[in-house]
Amino acid sequence: MDRANDMVRLCGVLAGAPEFSHAGRDGDWYTFPLAVERLSGAEDVINIVLNRRDLDMLETRPLPRILVTGEIRSYNNRSGSGPRLVITVLAREIAFTEGDFENFARLTGTVCKAPTLRRTPMGREISDLMLAVNRPYGRSDYIPCIAWGAVARRAAQWPVGAVVTVTGRLQSRAYIKMEGDTPVEKTAYELSAVTAEESE
């Protein structure tokens, strides 16, 4: 069952073979990349986590696209390699479809870091948010969000502790980070907000 405060729906194509992720109380878990095309033709490649019981079904792929409904999850990577904050989608339901590409996410969470408002080199206003989204059993997922224009200006005024609801697209974004003297390409994941409102 989807959580009312954390829901994502993605429709895309398999972009790589599933790999073992970890073992848990509910059995073994695997991860695979799902490529979701934007209207611009660019792709967001999102890592999906699914239970072993769904793996055989995934490998049959009777239709070209995979529809995933689930929740955005985060965890801190303390291994020293890769990103510090890892963002994935926990698959609750998987189906196959000939439908259009789709990328929709809705989160309700608490602003846990003071938002920033800045301008891009092209002059667009952008605000960065970090939301803590509660799970039913006491843990929270920390999800980075960005907003643009009027939505960014409104979001930048929210205090730490405000409870807000954002909707938009879960996106992957490549960037370059210097490691010593070497530029290394990295990937960031964030919710690009279309709407953002303070909850009553």
Structure, explained:
The protein is built from two helices and twelve strands, in the order ββββαββββββαββ. The chain has 200 residues and is mainly beta. It has two domains: 6-103, Beta Barrel (OB fold (Dihydrolipoamide Acetyltransferase, E2P)); 106-198, Nucleic acid-binding proteins (OB fold (Dihydrolipoamide Acetyltransferase, E2P), Beta Barrel). Strands 1, 2, 3, 4, 5, 6, 7, 8, 9, 10, 11 and 12 form a twelve-stranded mixed β-sheet that branches. The model has no long low-confidence stretch (mean pLDDT 90).
Through-space gap between termini:
24 Å
Structural class label: mainly beta
* Molecular shape: globular
Within CATH, the superfamily of the largest domain carries the name Nucleic acid-binding proteins
The whole-angstrom Rg is 17 Å
The topology string of helices and strands comes to EEEEHEEEEEEHEE
Features:
200 residues, mainly beta, OB fold (Dihydrolipoamide Acetyltransferase, E2P), 12-stranded mixed beta sheet, 2 helices
Compact summary:
It contains two helices and twelve strands. With 200 residues, the protein is mostly beta strands.
Write the layout of secondary structure elements.
Layout: E1 6-14, E2 19-24, E3 27-37, E4 43-51, H1 55-60, E5 65-76, E6 85-97, E7 102-111, E8 116-119, E9 125-134, E10 140-148, H2 149-155, E11 163-179, E12 182-198
Parallel strand pairs: 4-6, 10-12
Antiparallel strand pairs: 1-3, 1-5, 1-7, 2-3, 3-4, 5-6, 7-9, 7-11, 8-9, 9-10, 11-12
